[in-house]
Amino acid sequence: MTSATSALSASAHSAVVTGASTGIGEATVRALRARGWTVYAVARRAARLEALAAETGAVAVAADITEDGDVERLLAHVTAGGGIDTLVNIAGGARGADPVGEARTEDWEWMYRVNVIGTMKVTRAFLPMLRAHGEGTVLNLTSTAAIVSYEGGGGYNAAKFAERGMTQALRLEEVGHNLRVIEVLPGLVQTEEFALNRLGDPDAAEKVYAGVAKPLTAGDVADVVAYAVTLPHHVNLDEIVMRPVAQAAAHKVIRNA
Ligand SMILES: NC(=O)c1ccc[n+]([C@@H]2O[C@H](COP(=O)([O-])OP(=O)(O)OC[C@H]3O[C@@H](n4cnc5c(N)ncnc54)[C@H](OP(=O)(O)O)[C@@H]3O)[C@@H](O)[C@H]2O)c1
């Protein structure tokens, strides 16, 4: 172990969770704090992180994962705090649902930048610390959109397929450092902001979940994330696909009128 990680005992885990200001990331911070972990909660909106920190005892670090300076500052903050053994990359999202023929370049660039480049930048920054720990874990939150495309999903599919491809390469590259790489691929999850940010208005966002008896909640996904990262380190749930029962496949969702 390095001095950066020596503060961690075998039973005391410590994680960076990105995307922590809302939705699945916020729920994951709560789930890991409930299990006694030290958690660095990362997103751009500082006020939301501060409120979460005050409530849960997490450490708030406002940062844009796509900005090199912010990622450097995050790494310095975490290093000064004693380091981590687990990186949970949840920050991401979708913009637009246009077919490829009408794709808005700025939406595609945004999706690639946050889901792929941002995840890469944070992972790259923390890899030396995770390798040095000796029993590190990286968990990437991709999506079922990373395994099956759908009409209007092209940009999001492309970004999540790419994030998944990077995750698979990372697992192969880092196994020699005893790094565990987990991918969680959720289907329909009802969070406050995901569909709203994607589609831009509340009515369109509401339709995504309309009539679905029980979409997954952020808490459902957070429980699975927490389970996967708290298993003994030699156990790797390397790919976890999870959907609500009503969603048998991307194109087969039971909706009651
Ligand atoms: N909801 C679903 O149906 C669903 C299904 C499968 C997979 N997913 C994936 O699961 C993840 C979380 O989904 P969600 O529904 O919880 O999304 P969400 O509610 O839209 O939350 C996205 C989070 O990412 C953060 N974020 C966005 N850009 C960032 C940046 N540049 N730097 C740092 N943080 C950034 C946001 O915080 P700030 O705005 O404060 O920065 C927010 O905390 C995403 O990767 C999403 O693609 C979602």
From TrEMBL:
GO terms for molecular function: oxidoreductase activity, acting on the CH-OH group of donors, NAD or NADP as acceptor. The keyword Oxidoreductase applies. It comes from the Bacteria. Keywords: Oxidoreductase. The keyword NAD does not apply. Belongs to the short-chain dehydrogenases/reductases (SDR) family. This is Oxidoreductase. It comes from Zafaria cholistanensis.
